Amino acid sequence: MQQGSCHCGQIRFEVDGDVSQVLECNCSHCSRKGYLLWFVPRAQLRITSPTQSLSTYKFNKHVIAHHFCANCGCAPFGFGASPKGEETAAVNARCLENVDINALTRIPYDGRNV
Fold first, then answer.
1. What are residue 67's DSSP bridge partners?
2. Please, what's the b/e burial string for 47-60 (b: 16 or more CB within 10 A of its CB; e: otherwise)?
3. Residues 6+ positions from 33 with CB-CB distance below 8 Å
4. Alpha-carbon distance 22 to 101, whole Å?
5. Which of 9, 21, 26, 36 is the most buried (most CB within 10 A)?
6. By the 8 A CB rule, do 13 and 46 touch?
């Protein structure tokens, strides 16, 4: 199990699984934020803090709920659906505790031209 949080700690979460590879998207949103995304089934992510500081941003097709902390602005995860329609969580690996992001395999994704 992995644990993570936003910068100020008001948003905390747990994710079942071991992260070894992440998607590095070049779309306007992901590239500006520096996301390294680990995709897991939505049921594997549990928010362990009160959610009153959790804000949501949607853009483009408005199908992904990009969640961020209203206090510090850090964006630890988002919720959406896989191409097969399964509920999915996109975890920002940079917000996981005790994960060496330099050891992760980065898979480039051309979100800019999708």
1. 56, 77
2. eeeeeebbeeeeee
3. 75, 92
4. 9
5. 36
6. yes
Report the SS3 class of residue 65: strand
Per-residue pLDDT reduced to its tens digit, 52-98: 999 999 887 777 899 999 999 999 999 999 889 999 999 999 999 99
For residue 29, the tally of other CB atoms under 10 A from its CB is 16
End-to-end CA distance of the chain: give it in Å, rounded. Answer: 32
Could you report the per-residue pLDDT of 9-58, keeping only the tens digit for each?
Answer: 999 999 999 999 999 999 998 999 999 999 999 999 999 999 999 999 98
Report how far residue 15's alpha carbon sits from residue 77's, in angstroms, rounded to the nearest whole number: 11
Residue 37 DSSP SS3? strand
Count of alpha carbons within 13 angstroms of residue 4, beta-carbon side: 28
* Location of structure tokens 């602005």: 73
